[in-house]
Fold Cupin domain-containing protein.
Amino acid sequence: MSDQSAGTERASLSDGEGGRTRLFEGEPKTVHLSLEAGESIPRHQHPDRDIVFHLLSGAVDLTLGDETLSLTAGEVVRFDGEQDISPAATADSEALLVLASA
């Protein structure tokens, strides 16, 4: 997935096969997420993580705890991974997530 040269890592979003693809080994965990319209990921948590969710394309309803944010392409959200999280695509969507140790 990634190409490493002189301490620099490089990856392409096209390296993935759809779904969830981890782009680099180690920290911070960096994931390319691809969801088709109507597809969602069940509620889950990422304890001890701060998360940055950058919606690259499409539209996603991102449920964080008891709140749902309707995101459109280009929006970026940062949140605490201790809460319940569930993204649901309302259109074919791609996002880049960075999960950093809190």
